[in-house]
Amino acid sequence: MKDQILEVYKQNIKIYTAYKERVVNLLTDLLLDQEIVIHQISGRTKSLESLSKKIDEKGEKYTCIQDITDIIGIRIITYLESDVDIVYALIEKEFAIDTQNSIDKRILKTDQFGYRSLHVVTMLNESRSDLKEYKKYKGFKCEIQVRSILQHAWAEIEHDLGYKGEISIPDQYKRTFNRLSALLETADIEFDRLKAELKEYETNMPALIKSKPENVDINSTSINSFLSTNNILLEVQKLIEERIMAKLKPTDDFDLIIKLIKFHNFNSIGELEKMLKANKERFLKFSKLFIESGIKTNMRPMTIAPLLYFLHFLVGETQNMEKAIQYTTIFGQKNPTFATEYISFYKEAGEV
């Protein structure tokens, strides 16, 4: 029986490999479409040697190659443990699940430790297997393993140590294994909790800025919220978009913005907001001049965040060339041309 299975495998190795690539590409597209961010996805086709060893280990369990459900294996590594269930929901929706051969190895008894991963045996669902490009893979099984980065780290280290499972570990080392397993499991839980708390912080930020801006620290979340809620900055954004005839993309260079804010010694969103209100009219005139100059000379991108315009404005307010040049070094190099612009546009805005 073993020889027959191996012979069938050798005859079909190319189609197994092709199906593996199909599934990896399909899952990648589905994850992107649903905006599910993962760390990594990979696939493998079981080698002849590995298949032979598996048949030897399982004795008479396998009577034909269809009985072996992991000839094709896909591994999806998520960032957080909670993401494992999100990925599983997608797999369940898009594939037919062989529940009899699937197993959730994350579920451990209270006195167990070690390997934790979700193993889902799948086939193409009926609607997809009827498509021309998938017809030849109808009935093919594939095992998809889904686990978090920390669960993957445990599996890799456990494999490197050469001990797979609690029974094989010498008694004098079980306590250490238990302690390490608990640490990783706790870290998984805490990262999930941290994500939830950060999400809540982001959700509450507009209300915090509105009620007590002086208590809101300068960070990427508060800046992002400030950019999307402050009426003066939104007015400048509208000026930019009307002039370039395009929507501004959300900024992601918060490290740079924070460095520039710190240059001006702001410590809270409230301080920044107060300064904006006090300089509204002159800042709007400065922004118009800055936009028009950039369009004419094509010297700088006009799609930068409106908050950067205000930070440039404040440099111009100093009327100090040395300080303005020092400010430009935060962008990577000294730029006397830009420094001169900040100062001259500020002055001109007061004369318009």
What are the SSEs and their pairings?
Layout: H1 2-33, E1 40-45, H2 48-58, E2 72-78, H3 81-94, E3 95-97, E4 103-104, E5 118-124, H4 126-129, E6 142-148, H5 149-161, H6 171-211, H7 220-229, H8 231-244, H9 254-263, H10 269-278, H11 280-297, H12 306-318, H13 321-328, H14 336-351
Helix pairs in contact: 1-2, 6-7, 8-11, 11-14, 12-14, 13-14
Please give a quick description of this structure.
With 352 residues, the protein is α+β, with helices and mostly antiparallel strands.
Structurally, how many domains make up the residues?
Answer: 2
| Order of H and E elements | HEHEHEEEHEHHHHHHHHHH
Q: Decide which structural class fits the backbone.
A: alpha+beta
Report the β-strand fraction as a percent range: 5-15%
Overall helicity:
55-70%
> How would you describe the shape?
elongated
